[in-house]
Structure formats: structure tokens, C-alpha cells
């Protein structure tokens, strides 16, 4: 299959395919296209975003079955073969003979590359080593000065995962402030988020340019719904004194405050109706895991609020209404709210 045809056929399943490199398209045409078509026949859409508990279990099952099939004695050897140079040739041969790519992705409607990365994260023993010591932090700074952002190299030197060393360096690379946010820091955060969103909105909707340039006040934030996914590492760089996770948490608190200021979304009759709508919408999704829920769409069930607001309200609802909720699955919690709590709320309304 030629490159243009492959890209065209993949576009049906991956909307952002135009942004994918030619080499990745070639790999996806071989590893994913037939799988995607088969899932389509079954009425199953290709998924992105956070992996569900069910998908994680399927990955674990696929890995364990492949180990049993080939006799490779650990998931680490299978997924981190470079750590075992003496076994490398044998493992690569077994992967080829027993169709590793197909086996590892069985039953999971996602691009193979994402499944592979998820499996590596799940089975990497270096992912779960706890807090960094002072000595490790100093080593991390030294290795980054020597090797730049070659996190694969640094992870091998430190026996930590790629993601772990990258995120830890993000925390320690500048003088991080853990105290209350100052007015200056908060304003830097607001400006950084607004700058990022201006660029995104101009790209997605060039006609919005004039209205954006005229909108320098807080209502612009409400109007543009800035609770969508943002490039937090870029925003971290613009703020300077906080790392990305702090920026994200602070932004969520700012946004929730702005969007709920002066609104009585959970007071009186409006509050009852909002809870009723939320339970009904959650029940209609038939989701088995919280990560399967599109919280952005659900926000419309109770008003123009960010997803974090909706998630917080759902959390309070289940804690206050569902007995022994910690022992229940997500779907069991939703069923209980629908069957037991919903009639009570409707009667009160």
C-alpha cells in the first residue's frame, strides 16, 4: 500500500493523522489498519486517552500469554530487551516467530504504539521506586547536564523509568516555590494559559482572531471554556517558578472559581436538577470505568462548568449517597445512584 492511500484509510480512524510522520504512517499501516477495520466491523471505535481498567487487564493477559508461549521468563526481558544484552538476539527471534505486535495488541482498539508504551509503563520495575533521594536528585541534574533531554539514556543510568526522570527533572530544574501563589505568579499563569489558547483558537478558527484580540478581560475565559487539555510543560516554562503539576492544579482552582462565581448551581431546585441530570447522563454512557466517561460533554448536564467541577460533584455525590462505595466498581456505583438515589432526588424536586 502506498503512503497516500495508507494515510487516507487511517484518517477514518485517526482524525489527527495529517500530523503524523510518514515513517509512523508506514508502521501503522502494517500494524494497525487491519485491526482497526476489524474493530469497525464489530462496531467498536478506536480509542485514545487514558487506558481503562479493563484494557489494563487485557494488556496484562496478553503479556502473560506471550511469555507462556515463548518461554521468555519475565515481562521486563520482553519489553526492555536492551537491559539484557546476552539474551537480546534470542528474544528478538522469539518476538518475530510468534508475532509479538499482533499478540500484545489483541482485543484492544488502540494504536499499537500506545499499547506498547502502556505495557512498558505497567511492567517496568523502575516505575515504582518511591521518592528520589537527595543523591539521586544531584545525579539527575548531573546526567541532564551531560546528556541533555535524552531521558532514555538517563533512565538507564539511574534505573528509573523515562517518564519518572523526565517529570522529576521538570520539578527540580528551577527554584520551585511550594508556598502560596503570589499575585505576580497567578498573573503569569493566567497570561500563559491565555497565550496558549489564543494560538490554539487562531489555528482552529482563524475567523475568531479579531474577537480574541478585543477580549482581554476575564469573561473571555468563561466564553472560551479554558478547561480543555493544555500543554502544561510549556505553561510551566512561562510561569518559571512553579512546575507543571502546580500550574495545572492552580489553573483548575482559578477556573472553577471563575465559572461558579455568583452561580448557585448546587443550591435549591437548580441543585436537585443538576444532580438528576448528572446521574442520568452517567447511566446512559454505560461506562464500566471512570476513564471511559467524556467529562467535558457531561459538563453540559449541569451547566457551563469545567470537567473538574463535574468530577468533584460526582465524587461528593457517591461519597454521600453510596454505602461502601470504595468496595464497588464504577458501574456498580452508577447503578446504585440511578436505582436508589435518583427516585429520591426526583421526589424531592
TrEMBL record:
Residue ranges constituting the HTH myb-type domain according to the UniProt record: 124-161
GO function term, MF aspect, one: chromatin binding
GO cellular component: nucleolus
Top-level taxon of the source organism: Eukaryota
GO BP terms, alphabetized: termination of RNA polymerase I transcription
Domain spans labelled Myb-like: 124-172, 173-255
PROSITE patterns: HTH_MYB (PS51294), MYB_LIKE (PS50090)
InterPro entries: Homeodomain-like_sf, Myb_dom, SANT/Myb, TTF1-like
UniProt-recorded name of the protein: TTF1 factor
